Write the C-alpha cells for this entry.
Amino acid sequence: MEFDALTIILTIAITVVLAYVQFNKVEPDVHPLVLEEQSSPAHIRNEGETVIHRSKSVPHGAPLITQPSNKIKTLYDVWQTGLALNPTGRSIMYMLQNQFSFVDSTYEQVDRRISGFGSGFVALTGLKPKTETPIGIMTPYSQESFIAQQAFYRYSFVTVPIHDWKSTDLLIEVANQTKIKAIIVSQKVLPSVLSVLGDCPSIKTIIVAGIYFSEEQTKIAAQHNATLVKFATLEYDGLSSPIEHVKPDPEDVAMINYNTKSSSLSKGVILTHANLVAAMAAFITSLSGAKRFTSNDRLLTHFSNGDVIAIWMSSAIILVGGSLVFPSGLMKNVLHDAQASMPTVFASTPVILEKIHEALHLTYGKGALFQRAYAAKLDMLKAGCITTSSIWDYIALGEIRSRLGGKVRMIVTTNPTKVETLEYIRAAMGIHVISTYGRTETSGIATSRSMFDYSSIEHLGGPVGCNEIKLVDDVEGKHTCTDVPNPRGE
C-alpha cells in the first residue's frame, strides 16, 4: 500500500494534534462539589449567634482534635518521635556564618547538641526545671533558636520569643512582665541588650548565639550582675555532665508570645504544650492523605522566631522525621536559599511571596513564549488543575520552578496574600498553596483553605479540627449575625 505525501502530512498533523490535546487534557484535581462547603455547620443556633462551624473532618458531637496520637501530647514528645523514626536521617540544614552553602546534621547529632545545651544551661544558671521559668530568645529563626527551644521543652522551661528587630522598649517591657532570668541573643542585638540591662534587673544570664563578644561587653554585663556566655560553650560543657530530662505535661506552659503585628507594646499570650500540639495535629489532619508530610519532606520557612506558625509547622515536619532548613535571614538571598537547600515545603509570609512573584515576573514575564505558556496554565488552573507536566512546563516554565529549588510541592502562608501572587505560584510554578488564618490566641491557626481551592474568591477557608467557630452579635458595633450579604459579629 502506498501513501501520497498529503496523506502522510495529514496523518502526522492529526497525530500531533491528538497528542497535544491528550497531553494538555485538563481534569480538576478534585470534584468542584467538594470545595463548595469547607466547613460543617451545626443544625441549630442560639438567638444572636450564628451556627457553630466545624471542620468537615470532625463531626458535631465528636471530640475536637487535640493530638496526633495518644503518645504525642507535648512538643517534647514530637522531637522524641522524629528522633526514633529517623535517627541517622537529616534533621536540620543551616549556613555557617559568612558562608553561602548549607551544612546539615542528623537527628542524632542535633539531639546531642540539644542535650548538651540544655544540661549546660541548667548547670550554669542554677534554674530549676518544671517551675515555669521564662527564658527570652531574641534571635532570628535559626539553628540556635531551634536547639534552645527543644532544650527548654526537655527541661520544662518557658520560651519567650522577642523579635530582634523590635525596639529595646519591647525587650524592657517583656523582661519586666515575665521576669525572664536568662536570654539568648544574636551577636547583632547584643549591644542593644547590654544597653538596657539596668532596666531589666531580672536578667542574670546572656547567651550569645555568635562567635564573638568583647572583653568590654563582658565587663558591662558584670556591672549589672549578669554573666555573658557563648551558646557553643554551653553545648560543649553540658555534654560532659548530662542532666536527666524533666519532661513537661500537656498543660504546662510552652511559650509566652507577644504580639508581633503591632509596634505598640502589648500583653503576652500564654500557650501550653497542649495548645501547640493541637494546632499541629489539626493542620496535619486538614491535608489530604497523598499530600501529608513524610520523612522525605524538607521545610524552609521565612516566618520569624516569634511567629507561632513556625512552631507547629516545624513540629509537623519533625513528627515524621523530615528536615528543617534555617535560611540566611537576608531578603536578597530568599531565592538563593531555596535553590541551595531544595525544600519540598515552603512556609512564608505574604510579603515574601509577593516579592518572589515580583522578582520572577521581572526576569521571565516579558517573553512572548512565557506569556502564552502562562495563559495556558492559568486556564488549566481555572479549570481546577495544578500540574508540572504539561507541554508548557517543559518548554517555558521549568526554569521558573527551579528558582525555588525545583522540588517545592506545597507552600503554606497566611491571609491576606494577593490573588495575583497565588495564581502565579499555582499556575506558573505548579505548586499547591495553602492559605491559613489565625491569631496568636489560637496558636497561629483557626482556619485553612483547602489546598485544592484555587478560586480567586477571597475567603479564609473552614475551621481546622482543633476548634469550632461562631459569630456573636456585636451590639455596640452594630454588627449582627443576620447582616446581609454576610453575617457579622465577634
Summary: DSSP finds 16 helices and 18 strands in the chain. Residues 166 and 262 are 10 Å apart (CA to CA).
